[in-house]
Amino acid sequence: MNNEIKQLAIIGATASGKSDLAIKIAQKTDAYILSIDSLSIYKEIDIVSAKPSPDELSLIKHFGIDVLRPDEHFNVDIFMDLYKKVLFICQEEGKNLVIVGGTSFYLKSLMQGLSELPKITKEVSSLVETKLANLESAHAFLSALDPHYMKNITPNDSYRIEKMLLIYEASNLTPSQWFEANPPKPIIENLAIYNIEVERAILRERISKRTNKMLQYGLIDEVCYLEQKYTRLPNAMGSIGIVEVLEFLDGKTTKEKMLENISMHTAQLAKRQQTFNRTQFETITSAPLETLERIILTAQF
């Protein structure tokens, strides 16, 4: 097994050209690609997520795409496990790794790490399952126990409430006490991160063009299919591109307003992504798309 592989990350706002650049870099560096995108992880959400095409996916082996059903839960823990599996495969097959996507929170979590959980017995799992039958009561119990930690967890956040209950019942420590005693350990260190710089006006134009292409590719049909198969309840159904189409289908907006709203909300997301990328990483190389490929290849390989 070859453990000496190289890894890098390419981040940027939505519609900045990340996927195309990642494929170019991967082709020239004998690398696989790991997607960090909170929508591309789902099967059947293809047009809304602007997922790479089948032709593009066939050029380079991709991970993190078409992993879960839209009604399955996705969180940073699942992504951590996915990264570890992909890293093992790359090491085993002697491939480098390009991490790419717009959900930079997952990348930051990789670099910061997560605290380990206590050992969960069957008895503890059974007890927690019983308490979760009344989610509001479980949230109130934890809030009284650890008001400081629970102030950021809403009463309907079943995933995090369950996690906090498991920690308490397994360790007899409050979440705050557990995390203080078990600080996170970085999963990946010294990762080179490259950020695509795009002027806001240019990005808005790209987003508008991509939104219109999504409509041509069958956006409305895809959302109709997803709603019929999975209902509107899964978290994924609250994503930009889906919500606006559902509003159109409900007769609340016109098709033109639907497209305008998708573009506007996507541009707002892009602005948040740019702010996050600029402020949340200590070491990062930012450059326009036109020059970033050369910078990456010169610096890394």
3D architecture notes:
Helices cover 55% and strands 9% of the residues. The chain is built from 14 helices and six strands. Strand 2 (31-35), helix 2 and strand 3 (62-63) form a beta-alpha-beta unit.
Q: What is the CATH T-level topology of the largest domain?
A: Rossmann fold
Strand content: 5-15%
CATH classification, class level of the largest domain: Alpha Beta
As a whole number of angstroms, the C-alpha radius of gyration is 21 Å
Span between termini: 20 Å
Structural shape: globular
Q: Structural class, from secondary structure content?
A: alpha/beta
Helix content: 55-70%
Kindly state the number of beta strands.
6
Largest sheet: 6 strands, parallel
How would you write the strand order of the largest sheet? 3-2-4-1-5-6
Integer tally of domains:
2
Tally the helices.
14
| CATH homologous superfamily classification of the largest domain | P-loop containing nucleotide triphosphate hydrolases
Order of helices and strands: EHEHEHEHHHHHHEHHHHEH
Mean pLDDT over the full residue set: 94
Spans of at least 5 consecutive residues whose pLDDT stays below 50 are none
CATH architecture of the largest domain: 3-Layer(aba) Sandwich
